[in-house]
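Tokens as discussed.
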């Protein structure tokens, strides 16, 4: 867990500055927990939901590149045992993000009074075999 300094008087700017100090993994954890809090309190507005949908679409850039490299190697059946374990770990992270993305998509669909399939079409996301 990271330690950040927070001034005694909190403003939006100071809070945002503190959040920006978090390392990527902690920032992701904060984002997820903040999303959950908003969802529980009915405060997930469309802009926030759209941001979460985008955020949960991919892994962080470095991990996403590595995942793509390992996925290509897997297709060529040239993964080592260690690479396979790394690939499976990244795949699991991606699947967890997809669950969060689907939750945000569902919340947005409910907010707009449509179905999940409807919101996927409305946003122009691919639909088919769970790939959107």
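Sequence:
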């Amino acid at each position: 867990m990271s330690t950040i300094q927070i001034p005694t008087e909190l403003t939006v700017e100071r809070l945002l500055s503190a959040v920006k100090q978090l390392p990527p993994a902690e920032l992701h954890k904060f984002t997820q927990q903040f999303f959950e809090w908003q969802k529980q309190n009915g405060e997930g507005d469309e802009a926030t939901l759209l941001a979460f949908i985008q955020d949960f679409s991919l892994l962080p850039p470095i991990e996403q590149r590595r995942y793509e490299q390992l996925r290509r190697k897997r297709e060529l059946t040239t993964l080592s045992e260690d690479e396979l374990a790394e690939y499976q770990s990244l795949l699991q992270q991606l699947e967890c993000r997809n669950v969060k993305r689907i939750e945000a998509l569902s919340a947005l669909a409910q907010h707009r009074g449509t179905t999940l399939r409807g919101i996927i079409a409305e946003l122009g996301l691919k639909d088919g075999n769970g790939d959107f």
